[in-house]
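To illustrate the input format used throughout this study, we show a single complete record. The first block contains the structure-token representation of the backbone; no residue identities are included at this stage. The design step must infer an amino acid for every position from geometry alone.
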């Protein structure tokens, strides 16, 4: 099976930077892909930095038509939900995720990437993220409780061998801004009913007390009785005055990610995720994250 990009599953990094790039006018799409693929993490196993690359599905399809799921598409229109709730569409052409043990190495690689790509790309958005209390987000709750283990994640989050795009994965990338004052004003018991889990130890509420609009049931997607899991790599971003969550979710198909957003927004049945009253999506994009072998086909050959 083709190999997924290793940084997807490299846990423990404390510092993160995300770059969203658009193709510069007049630049050939293959040249754009080649330039991005030629951005490299340090040539050492002790550099302390990982790089993951994704592309707008339509752009990758134009350069590698047999290496992407046929139904995969960008986040090209806002998602309209219940009671006037909207998830914005801010699709760009490429996405770079740089993660490391400290911000200095992340900053240096991000800076090198921006300089190297000036002739072919413009930076639409740059966002720095960081780990908060190991595995919690800024609501104070554990994030990614239902993530599959690293033994299972590559099989659940990447496209199966023999299918178009094998070894690749579908990424949903969003920036969510927290309404921190409103959230902090809630008693812990009310916060737990919004999330659907206990705050200290992340135990899911019993079925008979679980609110129908809690975050847990609204983001649990099932098909034929089986849960369709995703692999989350969320982190915090921002300052004390303005902060939130960077949602980085990988799935083996787009269906489970789209259903999750539809259910959160209330677009499916009019029931909005209770958490959306306390956090607002500022961006929204889907990217295809190709396998290492697929990327290498575009890399400039290295000199011996």
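Output of the design step:
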């Amino acid at each position: 099976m083709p190999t997924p990009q290793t940084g997807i599953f490299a846990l423990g990094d404390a510092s993160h930077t995300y770059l969203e790039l658009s193709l510069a006018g007049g630049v050939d799409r293959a040249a754009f892909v080649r330039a991005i693929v030629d951005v490299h993490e340090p040539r050492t196993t002790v550099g302390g930095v990982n790089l993951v690359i994704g592309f707008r599905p339509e752009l990758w399809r134009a350069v590698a038509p047999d290496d992407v799921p046929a139904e995969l598409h960008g986040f090209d229109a806002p998602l309209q939900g219940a009671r006037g709730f909207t998830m914005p569409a801010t699709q760009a052409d490429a996405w770079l995720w740089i993660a490391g043990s400290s911000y200095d190495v992340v900053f240096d690689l991000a800076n090198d990437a921006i300089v190297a790509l000036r002739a072919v790309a413009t930076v639409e958005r740059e966002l720095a993220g960081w780990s908060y209390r190991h595995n919690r987000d800024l609501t104070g709750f554990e994030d990614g409780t239902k993530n599959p283990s690293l033994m299972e994640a590559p099989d659940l989050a990447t496209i199966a061998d023999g299918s178009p795009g094998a070894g690749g994965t579908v990424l949903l990338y969003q920036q969510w801004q927290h309404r921190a004052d409103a959230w902090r004003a809630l008693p812990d018991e009310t916060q737990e009913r919004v999330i659907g889990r206990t705050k200290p130890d992340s135990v899911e509420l019993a079925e008979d007390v679980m609110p129908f609009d809690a975050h847990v049931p609204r983001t649990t997607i099932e098909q034929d009785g089986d849960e369709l899991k995703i692999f989350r790599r969320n982190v915090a971003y921002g300052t004390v005055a303005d902060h939130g969550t960077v949602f980085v979710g990988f799935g083996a198909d787009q269906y489970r990610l789209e259903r999750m957003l539809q259910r959160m927004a209330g677009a499916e049945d009019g029931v909005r995720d209770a958490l959306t009253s306390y956090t607002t999506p500022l961006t929204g994009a889907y990217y295809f994250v190709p396998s290492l072998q697929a990327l290498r086909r575009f890399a400039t050959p290295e000199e011996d």
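Structural context for interpreting the output: The chain has a mean pLDDT of 95. The first strand starts at residue 15 and ends at 23.
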